[in-house]
Amino acid sequence: MDEKNPERRRTRDVSKFIKNRPKATAATYQSGLVKFLDFVFDNKKTRRIAPPGRAPVDVAFYDKLAIEYLNGDRDEFDFADDLQDFIRANAGAAPKSLGIYKSTVLSWLAENHIYLHQQTTRRIQAGGRPLTRDRIPTHEELRKILGHGDLQLKAYILLLSSSGLRPSEGLKLRWDDIDREHGLIRVRGEIAKNKTPRITFISVEAMETLNEWREYFDQYITKIDAVTWREIERDTDRVFPVTYKATREKFLRVLEKAGLDETDPSTGRTVLHLHALRKFYRTRLAMGGVPVDVVEELMGHEGYLAGSYVRLTVADLEVQYRAAEHELWIYRTKPINEEQLRRVEADYRDLQEKYDQVQQQIAKMDAIHSLVAAHPEALQALIDKRIKEALESAGK
Questions:
Q1: 126: which residues sit within 8 A by CB, 6+ positions away?
Q2: Lowest mean pLDDT among 132-136, 253-257, 279-283
Q3: What is the DSSP-derived secondary structure letter of residue 198?
Q4: Contact by Cβ (8 Å): 192, 205
Q5: Model-level pTM?
Q6: What domain range is 201 assigned to?
Q7: Helices 23-40 & 59-70 angle (0-180, nearest 10)
Q8: Whether residues 227 and 368 fall in one domain
Q9: Is residue 246 within a helix (H) or strand (E), and if so which, with residue range?
């Protein structure tokens, strides 16, 4: 929820949701919500009052997570996506358990006046094979999208696709979080999904557009304030001082203009969306040769770095990122390696040699032409001589 645009706050946390329910039901609901919140916030272990063993769950901790989750920058599609991803992540559980998880989360959301459309909830299958709802955009599709977007949206899309940031993290970035000289981003713990600070990087291509946006930023704020009917105190320290809802709506309009607004017939939702940019990053950077462990770490997934990678410094991570960042470029051309360069140079030398030979032949022809033009009688004498020799040869 945008602090500058206060709305009704959702307050039904875990404790309030299970209050006055039968003991067994309350325990089941609490277990389901704790698992869901652990998944959403990337908690690897359930938080308990005492460290080891089977100590009671730290309900106060999960109450805070619940309130934060309910009042974050999410719309009904994001709540549905989180539930779908949670069910998929627990696909190994019994179908009955998955059904309980699903119904628990849906009931909890409903008590907080968050109602998911029936078609949306139907596609969240508690067991069985999950349905494909989205896909990763291609470079060509991203070029089309960027071609129809304004400078703000271009900067935002290139930021997400080259840094692996979550859409909400990108919108909460502040200008002082970005080292624009080195293309480094410091993700503050307060804006990270798992509350753990991290660093990531942004491509040279994206940095160029972000610098353009920075130069235009003050003009943008002036224009927006001029057309806003009520007085709003804008947080101009944020790189993108807009809400997630407004950004998503702008993205959908651009998809329509680009002819890429294909929708899933079962949900009516576009198969390309802002979260897919994060998947684009994960896939392309790995294709560029960056170890998956390192990619996941840059994306903010805890516990992925193996022993051989935990000792990597920021400089080491940047070396790996920069070596593969061409895979994230949308407009720039992929650089060639040394072997390809040697082949190009050899081809060039071969073509240069052939060109020199042709030039030499042309020079000889020009010399002959000049000689004939200066002494036409000599050419006639030579022709007569050749004709005479041919006749004599024929008469023998």
A1: 87, 95, 98, 99, 101, 102
A2: 132-136
A3: E
A4: no
A5: 0.58
A6: 139-328
A7: 60
A8: no
A9: helix 244-257
